[in-house]
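Recap quiz, item 2
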Amino acid sequence: MKQESDSNAVMSNGTSKESSSPSGQAKGRPAAGTLIVCPTSVLRQWAEELHNKVTSKANLSVLVYHGSNRTKDPHEIAKYDVVLTTYSIVSMEVPKQPCVDRDDDEKGKLAGDDALSMDFPLSKKRKCPPSSNKKGLKHKKKVDESLLDSASRPLAKVAWFRVVLDEAQSIKNHRTQVARACWGLRAKRRWCLSGTPIQNAIDDLYSYFRFLKYEPFSAYKTFCSLIKFPITKNPAKGYPKLQAILQTMMLRRTKGTLLDGKPIINLPPKVIEMKRVEFTKEERDFYSRLESDSRAQFKEYANAGTVKQNYVNILLMLLRLRQACDHPLLVSGFDTNSLWKSSIETAKKLPKEKITFLLSCLASLALCGICNDPPEDAVVTVCGHVFCNQCISQHLSGDDNQCPAANNCKVRISASSVFSSAALTSTLSGQPIQESSPDCPDSQGDEVLGPRFEDGCQGSSKIKAALEVLKSLAKPQDHRLKSSGCPEGSSDVHSGDTPNCSPDEKNMVTGESLNDSSKVLGEKAIVFSQWTRMLDLFEVGLKSSSIQYRRLDGTMSVAARDKAVKDFKTLPEVSVMIMSLKAASLGLNMVEACHVLLLDLWWNPTTEDQAVDRAHRIGQTRQVTVSRLTVKDTVEDRILALQQKKREMVASAFGEDETGDRQTRLTVEDLEYLFMA
Ligand SMILES: [Zn+2]
Ligand SMILES: [Zn+2]
């Protein structure tokens, strides 16, 4: 039904111990059907797919359990074959299981050292746990049940036959409210469904084991001693052990999987085209200056042996080089004053010292706690952790309201406890924040960039090249005419399928017919960038080219995102979706598009693959063309090579040449390579 990334995994408990005891139906808890828990962004999609894919003969009754007027009656819920709901609702309705630390202390005391012994035979342990342990579990169960009966709402008041967690990576952090709530759901059968079961670390797996009640790994200490520590100590020995465990409980399907000798799914081909863009002379001058400065700086660090100590500084230099390939204006930045108005009132109530402290956090060289890159539009949480505006917005719009900083901060945060530098400064000075125009952002860096880039609305070479690709899709029938109108040998874009002429000249040729042809419907495309400000700049180009588009990024509300996706899928005149790379991994299905444009490169190719898979997935009937736009003779060449290396890396829990790992940490060798002349 769904296809994630290049592969999909179902982890299941087979049958849990609850099925052998009548406790599931005890105390008049009504027996219910299947509960499917998914992110809000794919709830509608699940309902549609169930409607379209399940034959009417099956007579399947489906309830979408969502919204404030949802039923409060558990008996009503129990009437349906399938109930669809979201992680946020489970988080609200189901009493949280205790955090692992507390839980394990308790279990550790009762079970003694047996549970920690590494060579204790697994099968024996599962079938006949030490009696003291059994007692401990029973005792705990009683506590949970009384909790359930008093505080819980309908989802927790029924005994499910089956619970399916879709995009199960939503519970990968076992410390979150949402994970602990999901563990508390009562069911005979449990499934985890995920295209990326491991995103950051082996630790991600623990929460699944806990939800699946897959003993003995559902106890954190046992998980660590039998799985996590062996891998840390000796990956060559630890990974095969994990593979052996996963094989007993996991069904893994990749796009290449064969069933009875035939491919399990038949996807149309995906063609990747490299579009090599050339800078204008001004852009090249700007880039070269930036590059020679950062090379000199890197050399200094390298000679002093302080590359590691200056990691953040170096990433920042790389960021500027990468951004310069997209648009010189990204390097200097422009006003983002309108951010986080909701927190200004909170800021006013903070003591002066706190505000000064938060400002110093923003001024320090900190990487975003979510994407590990230097933050775009840096904001700081009330606990002093720095993030990209987009990364933290996306996090808060999800099912988790704890600070995601890497040091297990876990402070509860909301939109009113995240501050931009402008909000804090204006609170200190008492001056109101000035609005900036969203359509045509002004440059703050005129003095740095000089007069050449004063006009923020001037498209860069890369933007122009991308617009050319989009225009060729919108008007396929006069494609030939246009290319014949271009003089030879003046090319900015070298590629097999685009007309061999510079964007400027082509604009002149087609300028007059623009209004007539703008209503012609062509193929749809998704355009990705990792920077919201690049999307801002690209919007300007789309508007002036009369291309109708929608936008999707992590700073938008869930409702606004749903609307954008729906418009793109259903309105024929909306031909382009511009989308943040960081908002792409949400299980979104956008097979209406058969072209994908990647405006910039991300360190880890997995993220890019996930983005492309919005269009290249089950349901796609046409060939998908991916255009990767890079600028000649820049750092982008070397990032491409680095990505290739990562793709080839053979080290994973799955014994395949793909890790599903989003880690972006670069080694010293990587950095040396990226700065080499
Ligand atoms: Zn970030
Ligand atoms: Zn924090």
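The radius of gyration is 27 Å.
Residues 381, 383, 385, 403, 405, 409, 411 surround zinc ion (ligand 2) (CB under 6 Å).
End of item.
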